[in-house]
Amino acid sequence: MNSFKIYLARPRGFCAGVDRAIEVVRLTLKKYGRPIYVKHAIVHNKFVVRELEKEGAVFVEDINEIPDNSIVVFSAHGSPPIHYEIAKKKGLKVIDATCPLVHKVHREAKEFVENGYFIIYIGHKNHVEAIGIKGECEDKIDIIETKEEAMNYIPKSNKLALLTQTTLSVDDTREIIEILKRRFPQIVIPKKEDICYATQNRQDAIKKISKICDLVLVIGSNESSNSNRLREVAEKHGAKSYLIESYEYINDEWLKDIKNIGITSGASTPEILVQKTIDYLLQKGGEEVIELGDAIERIRFQLPQI
Ligand code: SF4
């Protein structure tokens, strides 16, 4: 059997927004009893969703499916204002688990629109976070995803403002912003960038690991934007990389002739899935586990009133 070293990215896994959202669901269940409803996957991880379902949470995609006068938790990714209006009409009690860093972007979007700006939003058009922000702006927003779109963008106003999704690739986004700034020097950009600290720190750590590893495994769900970005960043920095839900998806062929394997996990992935992956790899030739990365995260967000 081939032997290899395992490099573990630090930080990895849960961010403060995800920790808070999961705690909000558990505290809501404790206070109100089952069932409580959760609009959208509370965080983009199937393992977390299944665990909370067992505890009594009912996940729905369409707010109209929720029976009137129920308790509902809104997911960490943020919601368009229309969902709060519908909830009010249906007599739902809303407990809002939107990450405060997503809330910040909603506030910026609202303020820009109120001040007559047209927003260019860098993000993934179908991602629930982007849909929430779009809802703040009605027709005063265009969403772009790529450098090509930035180069070909035809502005609809000369008063432009720029916002971004919180979980994008830091490097790709910087390049798109540079193109937009070059093309529209008057574009207004928020003082503090929208890509969040957790996205930045996890990408910084995986860059270091990717330079010394032949293979990088990102543990996370396919729907998780930040997990997908981690896989892309790993590949850009020289490693073959796979995004997998858990160790059960590892193909042993990937481990042939490998010297160093890197492991990280998305901001919505529980640590248990990483530990199980390490246990599996130790049985398959892993000899040593080395943690790499400098950032220490101490951020905690206040809970909403429940
Ligand atoms: S990834 Fe960032 S924006 Fe998203 S929930 Fe975590 S801290 Fe908040």
What does this protein look like?
This protein is an alpha/beta fold and 306 residues long. It folds into 3 domains: 4-14 and 197-292, 3-Layer(aba) Sandwich (Cobalt-precorrin-4 Transmethylase, domain 1), CATH 3.40.1010.20; 16-99, Rossmann fold (3-Layer(aba) Sandwich); 101-183, 3-Layer(aba) Sandwich (Cobalt-precorrin-4 Transmethylase, domain 1), CATH 3.40.1010.20. Helices cover 40% and strands 19% of the residues. It is built from 10 helices and 12 strands. The chain has helices spanning 16-32, 46-55, 81-89, 100-114, 128-137, 147-152, 170-183, 197-212, 225-236, 271-283, and strands at 4-9, 36-39, 57-60, 71-74, 93-96, 118-122, 141-144, 160-164, 215-219, 240-244, 260-265, 286-292. The strands form 3 sheets. Strands 10-9-11-1-12 form a 5-stranded parallel β-sheet, with helices on both faces. The radius of gyration is 21 Å and the shape is flat. The model has no long low-confidence stretch (mean pLDDT 97). The chain binds iron/sulfur cluster (SF4). Iron/sulfur cluster is lined by residues 15-18, 76, 99, 101-102, 166-167, 196, 198-199, 226, 267. Residues 15-18, 76, 99, 101-102, 166-167, 196, 198-199, 226, 267 line the site of iron/sulfur cluster.
Q: Span from first to last CA?
A: 53 Å
Overall CATH class of the largest domain: Alpha Beta
Mean pLDDT comes to: 97
Portion in strands: 15-25%
Content-based structural category: alpha/beta
In CATH, what is the homologous superfamily of the largest domain? 4-hydroxy-3-methylbut-2-enyl diphosphate reductase, catalytic domain
- Based on Cα principal axes, name the global outline: flat
